[in-house]
Each structure stands twice: as C-alpha cells, then as structure tokens.
Amino acid sequence: MLTNWIRTHRLVSFFLLTYAISWSLNGVVIALQMEPSWTRWILSGFLSASGPAIAAAIVVHVSDDDLRVWARGIVHWRVHPKWYVAAIGIPAAIALSAGAIAALLGGPIDFGAFSPNLLTLAFGILLGTFIGGGQEEIGWRGFAQPELQQRYGGLVAAIVIGVLWGGWHLPLFFDPTAPHAQWPLASQLSYFVGIIGFSVLLAWVYNGSGGSILLVMIMHGSENALGALVPLDVDLVIVDGVPDWGLLVSLNVSHVAVTWVFALVVLMVVGTGLRATRLSAAGATGTTRQDERV
C-alpha cells in the first residue's frame, strides 16, 4: 500500500510530494499564462511555497507520528536572543556586504541614498516569514534536515537539501512573467550556488536554536526582505519601467560570495556537524536544549 511505502521511504516521499504539489501549482500558472493577480499569487506565491510544509505534514501523519509534537517547532520561540540576532542580522550583513562589494565593482549602488525605513523592513520580514517564502522551512528544515542529518550529518544534509531546494525553484525560470526567467545566465547560476550556502546557514540556526522552525522561517523571511537594504541607483537600473537585470549581476554574484563566506566561517567554528542532533523530525523540538551553543 501507498501508506506503507511512505512510512518506509519518508525522505523520498517528502521530496516527491513537495515537488509534485509545488510544480503542479506552478505548472497551472505557467500553462494558463496567468497575469499578476491575487489568484496567481495564491497559487504560485503562497500555496506553491507551502508545498514543503504540506508534504512534511502528510508524511508525518501517514507515519503515525504526532503532528502536534512535530508542529511545536513552528511556535518554538523561547530560544537565546542571539539566535534572533543571527536569523535577522546575518541576512542583513550579507545584503549590505554584497552591496558594498558590488559598488566597488562599479555596480549601480548609491549608498549616498541609504536611508532604510525600519518599519517597512520589519513588515517585509513579517510577511516573508509567514507567507512570503518562510513557510517553506516547515518542510525543508523542520522535516528534511533532522531526518537527513541522522544518517549523514548536518553538512551533508544541508547540501542535499540545498540542491533539491534550488531545483524546486526551477519553474520560476520558465515563467516568462517571473524575474528569474529574465536574469542573465551568471545571475541564474549564482542563485543555485547561493541557495546551497544559505541552506548551510539555515541548518546551523535550526540546530543551534534547539530545532526552532520559527527561527529559520524568520531567517528565510529576512533573506527575502532585507535585499531592500541595498540602495540601488533606480535611474540606472530601471529603464522605461523595465529592470535592466544585466546591471545587477555584480550584486547577485557578490551576494552569493558573501553567503558562502558566512557559511564557511560557521563550518570552521562549529564543524561539519552543524550542531546536528539525533532526533527525528517528529520530535526535533522541545526535548533538548541547544540554544546556548554557538
């Protein structure tokens, strides 16, 4: 029976379901050539991004694990404040460092216009955490990371997830209305390299915070929102209302390079285990105290 196969192939089932759910929804949007609208956003922006969470919930339920125990990680907020600093501060530092490097390389960055609106950024992080990509982490880190690292360790788990996470985004590169499809090849390739590096950082925060899914949701949301910290020279980047993506290659590549610098520093400090535990995805939260670790 299908349920027995899922029980004995939890990880494969999770990844297959994740791709099936998300790619089906994205496929509908692309096939119907849907223009920007609330319906399109619900399908490809919210429900598709929720594919990993839905897949994880299905596998946990079919495996007869307690969904409530597993879901505790989503509301596991009582962790050392340093992990909140890491979850928001690292994406901010990556964005600003990448912007500085891109500016030195002649990119269209105007730090003279640097004037961040903290309220707007906070609202962006909030939206990104719960409905703008952060919900993916319920599956990627909340299920797949603890399952994989039981067998292969934290780093290998993070890299495997990073590769599959990157591949999961492929429909965006075939959607003519999505910016990903309009990026130059260098930006597209750097995106996939960067997502693996960020997966390492997310795994470290997940493990270090004692299995807090909420913390990695915040970190993912911050990564998506805090790119707005970089003050682009809009007059150069936007031509007749259309972004010149070629001008942003230096920023995109710099972002990836800085992400990997942070990931390598973490690996040098904590090791390739990334503070991995031996807990299953169904009980990754609330049974250990790791939030005092580096």
UniProtKB/TrEMBL annotation:
Residues covered by the CAAX prenyl protease 2/Lysostaphin resistance protein A-like domain: 121-225
GO biological process: CAAX-box protein maturation; proteolysis
Keywords in alphabetical order: Hydrolase, Membrane, Metalloprotease, Protease, Transmembrane, Transmembrane helix
GO MF annotations in UniProt: endopeptidase activity; metallopeptidase activity
Pfam families (alphabetical): Rce1-like
Transmembrane region(s): 12-32, 38-62, 83-105, 111-131, 152-168, 188-206, 213-232, 252-270
InterPro entries per UniProt: MmRce1-like, Rce1/LyrA-like_dom
Name of the featured protein: CPBP family intramembrane metalloprotease
Species the sequence originates in: Natrarchaeobius chitinivorans
